[in-house]
């Protein structure tokens, strides 16, 4: 029963039918059983192959579908406001005026501020784990803890920031003499900075570990100190990888919704300073999507989603390309 | 030693100290958050809290039973959709490394991984909520399933790629058809990596709020109908945390504590598993 008819069955489906028919001529009971079985196997195999192809195809369909849905649903807004939508300074659903500039500015401010705050920390983690202590329990502990930072749900970061960080920022604002709101771009950047540390850090670590040791040893043999090796061998060598890590962090920061929505203060006015409340593209969508009561309003919100989608896709693609080029070299 | 050499060595030591200080400073906010949330939340958690519905504003007490049940249902449905689909796609990508379909499919997985969760929420709203005419747990599950896919696909593909070709060839040499080689030889060999990916993806979506805002929407009552709005833990935390009422904040702290413990346990468990099985993710 268990003996296969042909060892080539699996690899050469074309030849199978001929072989099977020739056996059929012998016309014994056990052979008929075997033949039926192998027909079933062939059919199952074909079904399986086809399923795999359909699944792989449907991934493409899914992503295209997401993009087309966004484009299709935002046509109303694209038609009515045109390209000026992107730098329209007023967002006023009551008067039916939709300009995305305040939110684009808010998104860029929070994201870049968060990046600037987080880069020294994530580089430090990368250098520490990649160069100073690549092995041992201490580096394991740090590595896993930093990865846990990425695991905490963003709504919990938001809640914590609301309860703890905002009052601290408010005190700080009173001290430096700006209007003490607490909620605002500065608070969101702080919490975002914490949230994006792991992305650049883990990429930085793996890039720094890939630096060939003969390069480092050459520098040491010329009398370089540790810092000089890091500065003039490791950093130049891993430049593109570190930059890709920053890009991936940026992609995360741009799309982050919940934590930012909870602490940014939610106003559609153009933020006057980094301590002022504002809104990001993602937080506007989160706040106003279910309240959007007429088609152009809804469409304008979806166009924000489309812009967000396109920007994050481009940033992620550049980042991924840089990483793959780096690892292939 | 000349002064210059001393200066260089000093600079090197200074940089090392700075690196160590900054590296460990990253951990500080995480520890603060963990301690704060657990302190604020653990006292709220008791049997009553886990088995009762939230009370209206003004009444103390009440629990989060609806959110717990809702989260479970939404995540289970999302997993049922995403796991088979993701694993099959991962198998395709690892078995057909160079085909054109695999290239485009892989690109799409990469794109999907970077899509902000709120955008997926919008799309799920138009695909399911609009046609069905009501917010529903099912639409939330679909949105979350879309977010799970890239993680499962990537980990399946990476794990299966690492398996030696000789395994596959041994299967074929015995005359096994393709689907049996894959399902009975390849997948069992890589099951640890695949499972870690699945668990990681569950951990990732368990705390997702943004895609649920316009899909599962939330519900103050206990609901088990997946075609109706349903509450979930992250939604409850968001809604109650941004409300001005102290009773609701208490509920949100308790819920945060549960969510945090759940997500971290899943993550740590996955880490231990991957280490035990020596999986590369």
Question: Can you give keywords for this protein?
Answer:
heterodimer, A: about 325 residues, mainly alpha, MetI-like fold, 2 domains, two-stranded antiparallel ribbon, flat, disordered N terminus, B: about 280 residues, 12 helices
3D architecture notes:
The complex is a heterodimer of chains A (329) and B (281). With 329 residues, chain A is mostly helical. Chain A has two domains: 69 residues; 241 residues, Orthogonal Bundle (MetI-like fold). Helices cover 75% and strands 1% of the residues of chain A. Chain A contains eleven helices and two strands. A two-stranded antiparallel ribbon of chain A has the order 1-2. In chain A, strand 1 and strand 2 form a beta hairpin. Chain A is flat, with a radius of gyration of 29 Å. In chain A, 45% of the residues are buried. Chain B has two domains: 40 residues; 231 residues, Orthogonal Bundle (MetI-like fold), CATH 1.10.3720.10. Chain B is flat and about 70 Å long. The relative contact order of chain B is 0.14. Chain B is built from twelve helices and no strands. The longest helix of chain B is centred in the last third of the chain and has 32 residues. Chain B has 281 residues and is an all-alpha fold. Classes of the chains: A mainly alpha (329), B mainly alpha (281). At the A-B interface, helix 2, helix 3, helix 4, helix 5 and helix 6 of A face helix 1, helix 2, helix 4, helix 5 and helix 6 of B.
């Amino acid at each position: 029963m268990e003996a296969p008819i042909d060892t080539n069955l699996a690899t050469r489906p074309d030849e199978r039918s001929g072989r099977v028919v020739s056996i059929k001529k012998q016309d014994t009971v056990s052979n008929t059983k075997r033949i039926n079985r192998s027909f079933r196997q062939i059919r199952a195999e074909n079904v399986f192959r086809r399923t795999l192809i359909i699944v792989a195809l449907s991934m493409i369909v899914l992503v295209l579908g997401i993009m087309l849905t966004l484009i299709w649903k935002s046509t109303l807004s694209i038609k009515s406001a045109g390209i000026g939508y992107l730098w329209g300074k007023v967002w006023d659903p009551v008067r039916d005026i939709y300009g995305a500039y305040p939110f684009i500015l808010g998104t860029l401010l929070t994201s870049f501020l968060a990046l600037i705050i987080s880069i020294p920390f994530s580089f430090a983690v990368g250098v520490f784990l990649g160069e100073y202590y690549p092995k041992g329990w201490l580096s394991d502990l740090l590595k896993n803890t930093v990865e846990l930072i990425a695991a905490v749900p963003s709504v919990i970061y938001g809640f914590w920031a609301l309860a703890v960080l905002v009052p601290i920022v408010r005190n700080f604002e009173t001290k430096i003499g700006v209007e003490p709101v607490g909620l605002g771009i500065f608070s969101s950047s702080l919490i975002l900075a914490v949230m994006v540390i792991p992305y650049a850090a883990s990429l930085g670590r793996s890039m720094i570990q890939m630096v060939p040791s003969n390069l480092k040893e050459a520098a040491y043999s010329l009398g370089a100190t540790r810092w000089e090796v890091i500065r003039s061998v490791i950093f130049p060598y891993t430049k593109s990888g570190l930059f890709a890590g920053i890009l991936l962090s940026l992609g995360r920061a741009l799309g982050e919704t919940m934590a930012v929505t909870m602490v940014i203060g939610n106003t559609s006015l153009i933020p006057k300073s980094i301590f002022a409340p504002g809104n990001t593209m993602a937080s506007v969508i989160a706040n106003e999507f279910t309240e959007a009561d007429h088609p152009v309003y809804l469409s304008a919100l979806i166009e924000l989603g489309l812009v967000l989608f396109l920007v994050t896709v481009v940033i992620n693609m550049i980042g991924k390309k840089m990483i793959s080029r780096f690892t292939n070299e | 030693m000349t002064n210059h050499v001393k200066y260089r060595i000093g600079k090197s030591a200074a940089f090392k100290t700075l690196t160590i200080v900054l590296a460990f400073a990253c951990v500080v906010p995480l520890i603060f958050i963990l301690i704060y949330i657990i302190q604020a939340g653990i006292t709220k958690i008791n049997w009553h809290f886990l088995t009762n519905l939230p009370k209206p504003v003004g009444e103390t007490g009440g629990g989060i039973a609806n959110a717990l049940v809702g989260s479970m249902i939404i995540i289970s449905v999302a997993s049922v959709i995403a796991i088979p689909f993701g694993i099959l796609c991962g198998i395709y990508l690892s078995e057909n490394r160079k085909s054109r379909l695999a290239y485009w499919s892989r690109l799409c997985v990469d794109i999907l991984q970077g899509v902000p969760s709120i955008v997926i929420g919008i799309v799920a709203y138009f695909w399911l909520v609009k046609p069905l005419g009501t917010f529903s747990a099912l639409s939330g599950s679909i949105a979350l399933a879309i977010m799970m896919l890239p993680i499962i696909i990537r980990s399946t593909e990476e794990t299966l790629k690492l398996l030696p070709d000789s395994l596959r060839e041994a299967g074929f040499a015995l005359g096994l058809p393709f689907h049996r080689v894959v399902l009975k030889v390849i997948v069992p060999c890589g099951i640890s990596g695949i499972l870690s990916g699945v668990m990681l993806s569950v951990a990732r979506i368990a705390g997702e709020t943004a895609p649920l805002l316009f899909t599962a929407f939330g519900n103050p009552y206990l609901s088990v109908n997946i075609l109706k709005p349903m509450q979930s833990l992250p939604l409850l935390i968001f809604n109650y945390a941004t409300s001005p009422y102290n009773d609701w904040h208490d509920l949100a702290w308790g819920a945060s504590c549960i969510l945090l413990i759940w997500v971290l346990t899943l993550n740590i468990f996955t880490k231990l598993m991957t280490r035990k099985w020596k999986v590369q993710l």
